[in-house]
Structures are given as C-alpha cells and as structure tokens.
Backbone:
C-alpha cells in the first residue's frame, strides 16, 4: 500500500506485548543512497530515552490503528544503533529538495513523497512546479525509476521532453513511396 509522508507522522506505535500505545512517529530517517526509510524518530511519555528511534525492520505491521511492534525494547536511543549512525549523520531531508532533469532544467521542489508500507521504499515524489511552469500543471509526479541521482543539493531525473517526443519523429521511413514522389516533368526547349 502506498501512503504519503504526511500519513506517516504522528502515527501511534503499539506494543503487541502490552497492547498499549508506546509513542508516536515523528521525522523519518531516510537513506539517500537507496531512497529508503530506515527508521522513525519517536516521541511519547512511555519512552525510556528521548529521542528514540524505531527501526523499520522492527515494525510487524502497519495498519489503520498504527504501527505494531513486539515490545518497548524495539524503541532504542540513536546511540545504540551503530549500523544506522552513518545514515542518521547524513541528516537527509527529502521535503523541499530541488528537482532538476538531466538537461539541468529546474522542475520544482519535492512537496511530498509516497512510500510503500511493506518495504518503506520511497516510490514516488510529488514535485511542486515553479510559478511559470505551474500554469499548465501545478504538481508533477515522479516515479522512482525516473530518478538518476540524489545529492545534497538536488535530485536529478530523466529529461522529460525525451518521453514527450512524438512516435512518428522517432521512426524514419524504410522505403520511399513512389506515388508520393514529385514528378519531374521534362520541358522541351
């Protein structure tokens, strides 16, 4: 199931062991190398450590009631997550990031993104267009497969006009039609 990033904030985190709400999700921790949500910052009164992180591998189920985990031990302080420390240090935020195409034309900024809840892979980017380009369409939806590069400054996607080229322009005739050839009348001089 695809959900927007706004639907992933303030989601209750429920313990399967006790059946109580342990905390709520906050800002996601995104690995920019694979565009994957690896963890969520958590906040709540029952937490032992502030801030705490919930690794996405520890989420048993994501449903309409919230994210279900085994027990409160799944919510850990950032210092305990040694393997994720490199990703946490990136401090990568996808929202507000500039989007350009391969010809270096500015397409807009990331306004939202859609994530698949079973794998927490970011599948689509919702891009807000600049004012002049927004006259035709105000938002642009970019699929994960169109992304070429993710950097600290911008996200590069495939050049959009390459796909909009008419089909007839891509094919060249194999043979000429003799009936369409111009007749060269011979003139007597």
Residues:
């Amino acid at each position: 199931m695809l959900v927007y990033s706004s639907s992933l904030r303030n989601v209750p985190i429920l313990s399967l062991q006790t059946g109580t709400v342990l905390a709520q999700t906050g800002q996601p921790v995104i690995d920019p190398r694979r565009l994957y949500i690896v963890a969520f910052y958590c906040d709540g009164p029952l937490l032992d450590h502030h801030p705490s992180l919930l690794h996405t591998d520890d989420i048993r189920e994501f449903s309409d009631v919230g994210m279900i985990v085994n027990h409160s031990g799944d919510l850990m302080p950032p210092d305990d997550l040694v393997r994720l420390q490199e990703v946490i240090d990136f401090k990568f935020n996808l929202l507000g990031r500039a989007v350009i195409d391969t010809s270096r034309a500015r397409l807009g900024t990331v306004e939202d993104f859609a994530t698949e809840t079973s794998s927490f892979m970011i599948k689509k980017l919702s891009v807000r267009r600049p004012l002049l380009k927004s006259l035709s369409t105000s938002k642009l939806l970019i699929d994960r497969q169109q992304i070429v590069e993710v950097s600290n400054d911008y996200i590069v996607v495939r050049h959009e006009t390459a796909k909009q080229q008419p089909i007839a322009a891509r094919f060249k005739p194999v043979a000429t039609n003799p009936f369409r050839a111009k007749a060269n009348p011979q003139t007597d001089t």
In short: Residues 98-162 form a domain with the SH3 type barrels. fold (CATH 2.30.30.240). The radius of gyration is 25 Å.
